[in-house]
Amino acid sequence: MKNPILKSIIRRPIKFVLLILILSLVSGAFIMNFTSYSLVSKEVESAKGAYNSIGYLQMDLSDGSDGNVYEIRELFKDDPMIAYEDCRIWSLGISDNLLNAANKYLEGDFLDEYPGMDLFVYDLFVIVRPENIRTRNYVKDRYDGVTLEGHVQKLIAGYPDWIYMPDSEEMFEDGFFSLIAQKYENSSRANGILKLIPYINDAVLDELYGLEIGADYLFRCEAMSYDASHMERPDSYMLKPLYDGGPLYEKIDNIDEFNLEDPKWQKMREDIELLDMNTRAFSIIATKNMETHP
What we know:
Helix content is 31%, strand content 22%. By secondary structure, it is α+β, with helices and mostly antiparallel strands. The chain folds into 2 domains: 4-50; 99-283, CATH 2.40.50. The strands form 2 sheets. The chain has a 5-stranded mixed barrel. Strands 1-8 form a two-stranded antiparallel ribbon. A hairpin with an 8-residue loop joins strand 2 and strand 3.
């Protein structure tokens, strides 16, 4: 029995080979497209399962409403697209061994929202040995303040990276320290209305100007030229009372015998404890589902 198809193939082998190639290419392209579609669809479904949009409800209380969130919760609790219970809890944690290098963020956000809080984030308690004391004259013939320059003998409390080099007991610039006592707030100079600092007056400035050169004094001060955007070290500090209602300085006859546990330093110790907590404070975010973090 003759096979007409076989005879046709034998007579036209080139056409047969071309036909096979065309069929193979078409089949291969179809299989590749199908495989690609299948893989992409699988990845899309996987991404959809892992994606979580993140947001929060903010209530407008400017109209005097009581801020009752339970009524709003009822609107969303049964919505399958909203996992309202998977919320974040913002808290504050204190580390025993780590310093918060980003403590600059505490000042702006928190003090703007809670103006009654004094976080002491930028305070230092230091023992300084004065080497030069000079007056400050912002206006001709006006005795406006005192600048004290010396070297740090010991850091009692505060952010250590402003005094010591990283992972070292060596001080920046050999401990050079510039301390300023001025009668007027810096912010009041900008708007042209001079506002007195309540604990600085002419008598206090005269007293500071008469401090003994070469003696050791305990000061409390606040950074006044800190570049928060670049986390740079302050180059000058503003004098503050050692504690609320306390003196501006204390002469230290023997640094090795200085005892912070002395009862007279109780108020100062409380401020130091608060300062230490702030320099070791971290924002902690707790959530049920870590996938909601971007």
